[in-house]
Design goal:
The chain is mostly helical and 109 residues long. It has one domain: Multidrug-efflux Transporter Regulator, Chain: A, Domain 2 (Orthogonal Bundle), CATH 1.10.1660.10. Helices cover 66% and strands 6% of the residues. Helix 5 (64-78) packs antiparallel against helix 6 (83-108). The longest helix is centred in the C-terminal third of the chain and has 26 residues, at 83-108. The chain is globular, with a radius of gyration of 15 Å. The termini are far apart. InterPro entries: DNA-bd_dom_put_sf, MerR-type_HTH_dom, MerR_fam. One of its GO terms (molecular function) is DNA binding. Keywords: DNA-binding, Repressor, Transcription, Transcription regulation. Residues 27-92 form the HTH merR-type domain. It holds the Pfam family MerR_1.
């Protein structure tokens, strides 16, 4: 089987900090693009594994980093990890990514 290659346009989007910081998606769309049902997303939110952009809003919206967390948790669950273990692994994996994005955000301000 062939390996999926990332084309230059995809890489440009992934390195566009302004785009990534501005990505905010409603829970229904997050469910559609990740394949994780809204009910699970809400449960993960209640457990503190992910966090909506605005906790006081009447409907949940998620940013790029939380969508990434959702995808990673789903992948780890599919590999057989428990939810708690998957969430811990995602925290470890995302810590460095979040640090880099914060630095990039601070530089672009």
């Amino acid at each position: 089987m062939g390996e999926k290659k990332i084309n230059t346009a995809d890489m440009n989007i992934l390195t566009d900090v302004n785009f990534l910081v501005s990505v905010i998606v409603a829970i229904g769309e997050v469910a559609n693009i990740t394949g994780v049902p809204q009910r699970k997303i809400r449960y993960w939110d209640e457990k503190g594994y992910i966090e909506p952009v605005d906790k006081t809003a009447t409907y949940r919206q998620y940013d790029y980093l939380n969508i990434k967390r959702i995808v990673l948790i789903k992948e780890l669950l599919d590999e057989g990890f428990t939810l708690e273990t998957a969430a811990k692994k995602v925290v470890e994996r995302c810590a460095k990514v979040e640090e880099v994005f914060q630095r990039l955000k601070n530089q672009s301000s």
